[in-house]
Amino acid sequence: MIGFSILAKTKRILKWQRDPEGMRLRILEAAKQEFAAHGIAGARVDRIAAKAGANKRMLYYHVGKKDELYLAVLEGAYEKIRVEERSLDLEHLDPPKAIARLIDFTWNYFIRNPEFLALLNTENMARARYLKRSTKVKSMHSPFVEMISTVVKRGVESGDFVVNVDPIQLYISIAALCFFYLSNSATLSVIFGRDLLSEDARDERLEHMIALVLAALTGKSMAVFGKQKAPKLRVAAHSGVG
Amino acid sequence: MIGFSILAKTKRILKWQRDPEGMRLRILEAAKQEFAAHGIAGARVDRIAAKAGANKRMLYYHVGKKDELYLAVLEGAYEKIRVEERSLDLEHLDPPKAIARLIDFTWNYFIRNPEFLALLNTENMARARYLKRSTKVKSMHSPFVEMISTVVKRGVESGDFVVNVDPIQLYISIAALCFFYLSNSATLSVIFGRDLLSEDARDERLEHMIALVLAALTGKSMAVFGKQKAPKLRVAAHSGVG
DNA sequence: ACAGTATTTATCCAACGGGTTAATTAATAC
DNA sequence: GTATTAATTAACCCGTTGGATAAATACTGT
Lengths: 242, 242
Fold this sequence. Notes:
The structure is a homodimer.
Chain A: H1 11-14, H2 20-42, H3 45-51, H4 56-62, H5 66-86, H6 95-112, H7 114-125, H8 129-133, H9 135-139, H10 144-158, H11 167-183, H12 185-192, H13 199-218
Chain A binds a DNA duplex through α4.
């Protein structure tokens, strides 16, 4: 690496330095951006190299060919979200708050990691061909299903929840509400003729989703939902805003 | 066109016939399949030609270059769903039934037209670059927002609905619940280790979605939702099953 | 200081893929 | 029947792109 665009005469200074781990990380990061932005077929190996400040040969040396690069990126993406998911503690919250927090986390994670959405879409267009091949990802179970399961159980027992929903269905539904809105915001914004990613629009959406799910679970709906803008009920957004 | 793989000696029979309109349709259909399966960058012009039983030159003659081919496909896809949407009559149904029917339609349309989902994903990966360019699509408004608006109004007046939800948010949420499940079924199936597209799984999902939304709107949730399999409540599936 | 290895650079190339050009043939009009 | 136009075929062009090969340079241990 080391992009000395300024020519330094001294041989000593011109010389590049070694940094295998750093290089590998930069390559994977660049690849993530590239695959997320262009999909597998649209991704360009040369662009990845350029973005990583590396020579193209480095990709093959440190990771592998295009396929393998993509798989590494995909696995990294799953790894990352699983780690963050595990850090979410819903046990000590009362059931409605726990669900709200779950939605809030999912929403903000997606907002903070738009490449993750793109990668999932790409992988689904490939009919999960790479995911199937990856024992690594298959072994990384999301803790959310289990978390939801216990929260729902507690909610039913305490009388907070009036229904006994299948945790997997609920998990998918929450992901769906967040994912679709963000993943399809480009086309939806055109169709509706307004910016769905503005701060206000996003706040409104989060409110709507929480109200919708909680209303369904508790039976007690807050009179009007999704329309007005109440004071932000930021339910413990996660650390970084990256 | 006319793929005589069998060699017919007679000159008369060997000769190709003209069929501009048919050719154009076959090209667009082939292109739809190709773009849906591989995205824009992954699509191969030669494959489209082959699938259409045409010469590559025909694509350029009848439609245009790759870009234009894609845009034509996208516009066709929107046109098609808008037409079907308009054929849906929710006016004479009582509000809960109307919402259920709306969900049912959306769900089944997506199942019958998987390419539509793929095209939308592709277009969103392109940040709606083509949609923005298309005055055609932008002029084709979905009647659903208006329909939902009146249904919700009626529901609130009749007392069926206890909340006054923003119709656009509800529209997006319903689309989200259906879209995400189907669009991401490949990866979700791997993650959960079971086939989410089996007949049973699909029925279960439809039930869950309807129960979820209606519970939120009416405040009256059916005791257990999403878990058991009640007798199919097929709410007037649309004609073809694609 | 030097040998050996790990990392990085500098070129190269064969296949692919989108798009074009020119020739051929069917329908249509006269 | 013949000229004209519309549709279709066949062949080619050329920039792009993934991947490979070989050479150079920085570290490491001795």
